[in-house]
Amino acid sequence: MRLTEWWRGDPQIGCVLAITSIVIAVLMLLGPVDWAQSYLSWRNLTKDELVRAANDYVDDRAPGNAACLYSVVCKDNRAGLALIRSVDDWDITAARQLAWDRKFSNTCPGQTANFAVKLAVDQPRYKETLDSLKYGVWSFNNDRFVSSWSRTSPLSAFSEFPTDECTRRHSVTSPIERSQVTLTAH
User: Fold this and answer.
1) pTM, 2 dp
2) Domain limits for position 16
């Protein structure tokens, strides 16, 4: 039996091949989407993890600085960020729920990040730090803060309305100079 005869002989195989081709084409266009990882990241996100990630962001991108955490809030049905003045008093469960509702229920639409870090303006190293590193936004895909700046749109994802300034008083990070850290071998 020749290939062309096989194709014409069984219409069910043709339908299966057509559907499979469409599914492969859609997957190629969308790229790898790992929804389960994003869901688990959202579901298991804790205050401690955000504080740790804020410290990592500062240590990696802006050593010697301090940073504050910000969380999404809804104001006049638009999203913006609010300074977290006390991590202990902050309700992360409500913040996670708002992030979920923004994604799946079109609550408080906009480009504002759900969680963010911003460097403290009263730190001595603040002025020396590149503007593109002064703001970071939480990435559920990466489980960390990433820069909110892009080549085409500075601060495109930080906050759509003004935020309170970050100062050392509300900082969740500890500025440590890399040169001051001493590693000891065990």
Assistant:
1) 0.73
2) 1-33
> Angle between the 92-104 and 35-44 helix axes, to the nearest 10 degrees?
150
Using a CB cutoff of 8 Å and minimum separation of 24, what contacts does 85-92 make? 85/170, 87/47, 87/51, 87/172, 90/47, 92/45, 92/46, 92/47, 92/50
Q: How far is CA 85 from CA 48, 128, 151, 167, in A?
A: 15, 25, 31, 10
Do 93 and 153 reside in the same domain of the chain? yes
Which residues are 74's β-sheet partners?
79
Query: Which candidate, 164, 161, 166, places its Cα nearest to that of 75?
Result: 161
Whether residues 26 and 41 fall in one domain: no
Classify burial at 117, counting beta carbons within 10 Å of its beta carbon; exposed 0-12, middle 13-18, buried 19 or more. buried
Mean pLDDT of the chain: 79
